From TrEMBL:
It comes from Kiloniella litopenaei. Its EC number is 2.7.13.3. This is histidine kinase. The chain crosses the membrane at residues 12-36, 361-382. Keywords: Cell membrane, Kinase, Membrane, Phosphoprotein, Transferase, Transmembrane, Transmembrane helix.
Amino acid sequence: MHRIFNRLSLKIAHKLPILFVLIAMISVISVGAFSINNTSETIVQQKQQTLTALAEARSTSLNQYLVSIREDIVITAASRNVQDALPQFANGFRDEAQRHNDPLQSLQGIYINEKATTATSSHGNKEALGQKHLFDGPTLLDGLYHSQHQRFHPWFRQMLTERGYYDIFLVDPEGNVVYTVFKELDYATNLLDGKYNQTGLSQAFKAALSNKKVGSISYIDFAPYAPSNDAPASFISTPVVSQSGFEGVLIFQMPIDRINQVLQVSAGMGETGETYLVGSDYFMRSDSRFSQESTILKNKVETTTTKKALNGETGIEITMDYRNIPVLSAYRPFEFQNIRWALIAEIDEQEMLAPVKEARLFILMIGAIVLGVVALLGWLFARSIVHPLQKSTSEMLELADGNQSVEITGLDRKDEIGNIASALQTFKENAIQQTQAASENLRIKSALD
C-alpha cells in the first residue's frame, strides 16, 4: 500500500482521508460480514427452537385432550346413566319392533321425520335438520322406547353440548344403534348387516365387540362418513359392562372443532405459521387455519417432513410444503390408540428470514454511517496536519526569498509541526544574525578603506 500511495500523484491532504476510508472500509466490511452471518444464524436458530417448542407444545396439548376423551368415555361407560340407559333403550328397541315390525322405519319417522330421507309421522320431530337433537320425544305416543328417550336424552344432549362431541351412540350387542343424540341416518340401523356396516362407526362397534374388557378402548381414524354427508369422521368406542354383564357399546364421534382449536392456536406462529396433522395416507387430519373450508381428507401433504414424521423421525428443516412454498418445517410423530399421524408445524421461509433481512439492512446502514463519519474525521484530521504544513512551507519559501520579517507560526505546538516551526525560527534567527554580521563586516571594511 505504501508503494501504491507513493506512485499516486496525490497530495497528503487527499492521501490521508483516502487511507482512513480504506482502513475503515476493510474493518466495516469484515465486521459487517461477520455480524450479518452471525446474526442470520442466531435468528434462524431462534426460529428453529421456537417452532420446535411450539410443535412439542401442540403435541402435548393434543395428547392431553385425546387422553381426556379416552378417560371420559371409560368413565361415562361406567356411569349409572349409561348402564341404565343402554339396556332400557335396547328393550325399547325390541318393543318398537314388536309394535311396528320395522323399528328403523318407525323410529326414524318419529325422531328424524324428514320426508326426503325417512318415513314421517304426525307425532314426529318438527326440528330442522341439524337441530333434531332438541326433540326429547313424542308426548302423545305410548311405548317403552319413547318414555326412556324422554328420560335419558336431556342428559346425553347436555353431555354432548358441554364436551363438544359430534355425536354419542349407544349400540346393543346385536349391533342395533338404539340411541344417538344427533339423530342422523345411522340412527336405528344395524352395524352388522345394515346399510352402514362398512363405516367407521361399524368398525368402532366391532372392535369393542371383539374386546369386551372393561376400560378397553378402540379408535377408528378419520374417513368420509355417509350419514354425516360424507364429512370426515372418526370414532372412539368402549364396551358397556354392568353387573349383569355386557350391555353393548358406547361410541363417541370425535369433535373435529375441538381438535382444530388445539392445533390452530396462532400464538407464536406469526402470520404464515400453522400446525396440522397428517395421516398415513398423507391426507390432513385437521383443518388448515388459512382455509375457509375443511381440509381434512382433502389436502394431501406428501412432503419430505411428513414422510419422516410418519416413519417415526423428529426434526426441523427447510422444505416445500403442500402449497409448494418453501417453509421451515418442524415435524414429529404423534400416536393415539395405535394410530400414527404426522404432526407438522410450519412457517413460511420468507417470514422467517424477514428479521434477517432487517438485521442485514440495519448493519449495512450502520456501516455506511461509520464510513461517512470516518471519512469526515479523516478529512478533518488531514486538514489539521496539512494546513500547518502548508503554512510552514509558505514561511520557508519566504525565508528562502530573503524575507526575514516573516512571522513563524506553530511555535507553541508540542508535536512535529511545532518542531518544524522551531527549526524555521532557528533558520530565521541564523539568517538575521548572518545578515547583521555581513553588514557589520561591510561597515568595518568601509571604515578601514
